[in-house]
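Hello forum,

I keep getting stuck at the same step: I have a sequence, I want structure tokens, and every attempt I make locally crashes halfway through. Rather than fight my setup again tonight, could one of you with a working pipeline run this one for me? It's a single chain of 195 residues.
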Amino acid sequence: MKRELLYIVLFGALLSPQAEGVQLKLGDKDIKEAIYYGSHRKELSHPELLKAWRIDLGYGVGSATLITPYASLIILAKESTLTSREPTEREIQKELEEKSGQISFGCGLYGEEIDFAPNCKAVLEYKDEKRGPTHTSLPPSANYTKSYPASPRFWALCFFRFPMTGIGANDKVTLVLTDAKGKELRFPFDLSQLR
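Reply #2:
Ran it on my machine without issues. Output:
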């Protein structure tokens, strides 16, 4: 849970070096580049570090970060650097294996009730197809916002994982989130602009 929380916060604000489209299999050059990028930007917050992978609809509305294998390695490198070490080959391979064949999103969502997050539903739209998540991580209770007790009162980090089958590196997908009251948030991602 702590690692998932870290991922969502991390995915906030980076200028990706030369976008080439989302790659499920990274070559040695891509791995080294991601590790270098993350380890040399330890002073950035997670949202700053992953800005290129994030769509932010604003405070009180929500944000979504596409968690690619490349972005995951950037986070791994940053976190390792903060503990004065480099990520091991085993950690790198584990991270890549965990992301294999899937597309994941970390979302910062807002609600008025402390238990709003478990009621959030996610769908990934790709062409004319709607895919449900294969895995979700929704906290049972949310955190207070900086504006509490005024609206928005609560904020939660939620994670959704979908199958990548048939989705190409240059395709467009839209993450659609719906709360218990039917309010819908749409996050369109152009995979060709991301790594």
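Confidence is low (pLDDT under 50) at residues 1-21. If your local run keeps crashing, start a new thread with the error log.
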